[in-house]
Write a structure and sequence with these properties.
Aspartate Aminotransferase, domain 1; 4-stranded mixed sheet; Aspartate Aminotransferase, domain 2; alpha/beta; 2 domains; 43% helix; binds pyridoxal-5'-phosphate; globular; 7-stranded mixed sheet
Length: 394
Amino acid sequence: MSRPQLQYLADELAALEAKGLRFRLRVLEGEQKPISIFDGRRVINLSSNNYLGLTTHPRLRQAAHQALDREGVGSGAVRTISGTMAIHMELEAKIAAFKHTEAAVVFQSGFTANAGTVSAILGREDFIISDELNHASIIDGARLSRATIKVFPHRDVAAAEARLKEVAGQPGRKLLITDGVFSMDGDIAPLPQLCDWAEKYGAIMMVDDAHASGVLGKNGRGTVDHFGLHGRVDVQVGTLSKAVGALGGYVCGRRELIEFLYHRGRPFLFSTSHPPAVAATCLAAFQVLEDEPERIERLWDNTRFFKAGLQQLGFNTGTSETPITPIMVGEGRKAMAFSAALFQAGLLATGIAFPTVPEGKARLRTIVTATHTREELTQALDILARVAREQGIL
Ligand SMILES: *Cc1c(COP(=O)(O)O)cnc(C)c1O
């Protein structure tokens, strides 16, 4: 039976198809690795956030198995009812110690950590001063808070100060918020200057370190550690889903922030906590970050090698300073066609177009990991060069 009330959705999909922007999900068989099988094809994988190769690390697997055997598959409730297990508390204590903060709270994902925190700590009378390229979860949290949102141009510290000045005389609270590493461009926030503004104007300072967790700072402690800003960022968000290799998000900061989120963080209050195996996996991951710093060194060695190779070939890698390296293409259709041709040639590099990035700024997004070999990266550069010439991109 047809459902005319859903016809508009089919129409929207047809419009995407016509623009060359409709995608199909690629299905991964087996493990998330530098060389993986997607849709039955063996490809060099430059599209995962598995920066350190922890998704398949033996110590993490073992921790998951042990927790599964000891405590079962699920927590059975939200944290505030009966779903707080000892392993959840242990993980939070570990994160707080790792980040040198008083306390930490774990959410189901980085997305819910951001959205749940911003919407909990601000209200209708307040102001959010936000970088234009901040992650969708920050934008959603800001909307949910009903605060007035003032967006400043990407990494423009003068504009950020101007926005703070505009609202300085208003009674509401102010939140200055930025991604630590920007997820589509791979550049780093001007955090020292933003911290100065936050202090000057009495704003709460918040950073989303999803792509800096396990990547930047000592043992992967993030941008606050990278810049030596301990104690100056009120709310630090990190993810457990990228370099840490499993799933989740966390907020760390002062004890009163964390206790408040226990009471008002809606995903914390209304959505079930992680299975014990997930918490145990993350706990093991933080131990690995401390015990195996060579993984982060290899990640950065590979990043320098690959970025230099791309630039030598004449690709435009934008403003990237981290393992996230875009290859700027411009037109959405062209980026998607480039990505499709690369896949046929044995390389997975996802095309990213509007609305994930602004119109006219479509790109391929590449991420190298610590576990790619030099041979794999060299082969990836060869494939990129050949297909780019065929597609008229180089
Ligand atoms: C991936 C990402 C998130 C979301 O993290 P998940 O744990 O995957 O939900 C939040 N912020 C930024 C900047 C991200 O890149």
